[in-house]
């Protein structure tokens, strides 16, 4: 018989991202299934570039506005990040071979010219002072929670920009030509709601940093974004209480770690009960 104490489970912002990707992922992760089976070179590249982006403020502050100098500083910082990585992520990197590590490192290094070019372009357009304000954390990975929202989460950082303390998230992977991806808009809107609940002040905007490209996007959070976050929260509550979402056939289903378990509802129920 299914447990009756699940409805009171607090929702994590990461649950909202799972839901946007596929509602059934919330179901499986909530029941102890592993989201990632192993760290491959592609995932390692993303981890490296996220860590590298935390050094952008120091690099921007110290470096002259020169593409060659900026690239050299990024190279130097990348080397330090790769040295520290096993100390920062011992569990995630425990099974990573030297070959995979070197491939991930090489893939990250290949992105440096584009990152340097985009950072330099932003510096020239907005100026060093504005860039430093948008990149420099006043708090790194702060824990935010709201009993009213039944929601908790940890943004990458909080920055102080134009007199307002706003959340900023670091996103690996691809970047849209303009604006931010819909899932990133949901992601950042959730943190805006949490920060408003904690500080009691309106948060008018936020930042999404696409670390594989060195691009920083300012996001004005709309009422529709807030509405979507609240809607997804309610759906996630139902799933955590035991609801099995309908299966949706998507192009990424074959690559999903849960594909062998994600069958018809009647078949899935027979696996668990």
UniProtKB/TrEMBL annotation:
- Keywords of this entry: Hydrolase, Iron, Iron-sulfur, Metal-binding, Nuclease
Cite the InterPro entries for this sequence.
Answer: Cas4_exonuclease, Dna2/Cas4_DUF83, PDDEXK-like_dom_sf
Tell me the cofactors it needs: [4Fe-4S] cluster
Nuclease found in the keyword field: yes
Q: Which GO terms describe its molecular function?
A: hydrolase activity; iron-sulfur cluster binding; metal ion binding; nuclease activity
Pfam families with a match to the protein in the record? Cas_Cas4
- Name of the featured protein: Recombinase RecB
UniProt keyword Metal-binding present: yes
Q: Where is the DUF83 domain?
A: 184-263
């Amino acid at each position: 018989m299914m447990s009756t104490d699940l409805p009171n489970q607090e929702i994590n912002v990461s649950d909202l991202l799972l839901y946007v990707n596929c509602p059934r992922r919330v179901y499986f992760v909530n029941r102890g299934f592993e989201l990632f089976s192993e760290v491959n070179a592609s995932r390692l590249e993303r981890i490296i570039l996220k860590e590298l982006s935390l050094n952008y403020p120091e690099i921007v502050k110290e470096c002259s506005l020169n593409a060659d100098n900026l690239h050299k500083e990024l190279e130097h910082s990348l080397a330090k990040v790769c040295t520290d990585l096993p100390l920062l992520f011992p569990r995630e990197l425990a099974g990573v071979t030297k070959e995979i590590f070197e491939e991930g490192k090489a893939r990250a290094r290949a992105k440096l010219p584009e990152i340097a070019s985009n950072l330099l372009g932003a510096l020239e357009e907005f100026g060093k002072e504005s860039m430093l304000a948008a990149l420099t954390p006043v708090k790194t990975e702060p824990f935010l929670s709201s009993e009213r929202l039944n929601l908790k989460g940890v943004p990458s950082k909080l920055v102080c920009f134009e007199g307002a303390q706003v959340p900023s998230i670091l996103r690996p992977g691809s970047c849209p030509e303009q604006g931010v991806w819909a899932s990133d808009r949901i992601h950042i809107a959730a943190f805006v709601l949490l920060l408003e609940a904690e500080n009691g002040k309106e948060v008018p905007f936020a930042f999404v940093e696409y670390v594989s490209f060195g691009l920083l996007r300012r996001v004005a959070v709309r009422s529709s974004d807030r509405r979507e976050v609240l809607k997804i929260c309610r759906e996630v509550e139902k799933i955590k209480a035991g609801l099995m979402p309908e299966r949706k056939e998507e192009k990424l289903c074959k690559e999903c770690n849960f594909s062998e378990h994600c069958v018809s509802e009647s078949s899935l129920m027979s696996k668990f009960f």
